[in-house]
UniProtKB/TrEMBL annotation:
Residues 21-318 form the Histidine-specific methyltransferase SAM-dependent domain. Keywords: Methyltransferase, Transferase. It holds the Pfam family Methyltransf_33. One of its GO terms (molecular function) is methyltransferase activity. Coiled coil: none annotated. The keyword Transferase applies. This is Dimethylhistidine N-methyltransferase. InterPro entries: EgtD, EgtD_Methyltrsf_superfamily, MeTrfase_dom, MeTrfase_EgtD-like, SAM-dependent_MTases_sf.
Length: 328
């Protein structure tokens, strides 16, 4: 067993990127107010999201897993032998076990922004697969990462499950895929889950569960801001709201201020009107063809796509095409 945190980037510090405080301050003083969804995933947030994945209303996880199981022989043929698997947003590393049980993988690298959750999940993975070389990299992959020198660049298969690509605007999703195309050598595979357009009632139920776990997941963001940044904010003065924005083809998640209130944060006065919200997350939904076109613009060719019987969700296997030669 080999579990090591071999590649740690604190990309929230330094001159190149704003800190968490700077990002949160910019979001809360913006119009409209917003906060990056990546800050939903501290240790507790990651644990709550794993509970969400078990809910009856939340179809993406079980549907994606079913698709992967049925498509695994074809995926294995596309991935080839002795592949290195790189998982973005590894979380609890549940779906990746389906790949490890069926594909020819000799090395695994899990990348996630939640350090404690990442180490815990990859340690379990290494214990359950003692033959596998396991690495963990705590990084904000939305800002770009570099593969550790110890990772063999040939035979790479990147895994980006859970329709996390939907958290990006379509423009940002294309930029992110272009950054992956730059990271991955030509011929590398990208196995990615993408949520599909469907009945609005199914979509909205998935983000407004009867047990209130999604609401707790959303409100936990305020607890984190209070604990880590010292923001004097009372979660009891906010409520969870999510809905499908038909014009933008996305689920939106918000924290609505129940009352008019004033906050002080790093010398700034932040005023909330009653009903004014902090926009915390988007989850864009695609058609199969629409996502394939987006991926093609980023330099990826479609090699396989699978959906469930109800067309709720899709899994794509993309191939990183060689970069076009520049003109002399």
């Amino acid at each position: 067993m080999n579990i090591a945190e071999i590649h740690f980037h604190n990309q929230l510090s330094g001159d190149s990127f704003p800190t968490m405080t700077e990002e949160v301050l910019a979001g809360l003083t913006g119009k409209p107010k917003h906060c990056s969804p990546k800050y939903l995933y501290d240790q507790k947030g990651s644990e709550l999201f794993e509970k969400i994945c078990e809910l009856d209303e939340y179809y993406p996880t079980r549907t994606e897993e079913t698709i992967l199981i049925h498509a695994m022989p074809e995926i294995a043929a596309l991935a080839g032998k002795d592949a290195t698997l790189v998982e973005f947003g590894s979380g609890a590393s549940r779906k990746v076990r389906l790949l490890l049980d069926s594909l020819s993988i000799n090395c695994y690298l899990g990348i996630d922004i939640s350090r404690e959750f990442l180490i815990e999940s990859t340690r379990r993975l290494a214990a359950d697969y003692p033959w596998l070389e396991v690495h963990a990299a705590c990084a904000d992959f939305t800002r770009g990462v570099a593969l550790p020198e110890t990772i063999e660049p040939r035979g790479l298969v990147a895994f980006f499950p859970g329709s996390s690509i939907g958290n990006f605007t379509p423009e940002a999703a294309e930029r992110f895929l272009k950054s992956l195309h730059h990271l991955l050598p030509p011929g590398s595979g990208l196995l990615i889950g993408v949520d599909l357009l469907k009945d609005i009632r199914i979509l909205e139920a998935a983000y407004n569960d009867a047990e209130g776990i999604t609401a707790e997941f959303n409100l936990n963001l305020l607890d984190r801001l209070r604990r880590e940044l010292g923001l004097c904010i009372d979660r009891e003065r906010f409520s969870h709201r999510s809905f499908f924005n038909t014009d933008e083809s996305r689920i939106e998640m918000h924290l609505d201020s129940r009352v008019a209130q004033v906050l002080q944060f790093h010398g700034q006065t932040i005023r909330f009107r009653e009903g004014e919200s902090i926009h915390t997350e988007n989850s864009y939904k695609y058609s199969v063809e629409g996502f394939q076109h987006l991926a093609a613009r980023a330099g990826f060719a479609s090699r396989g796509v699978w959906t469930d019987d109800q067309d709720l969700f899709s899994v794509h296997y993309l191939l990183a095409s060689p970069a076009p030669e520049s003109s002399p």
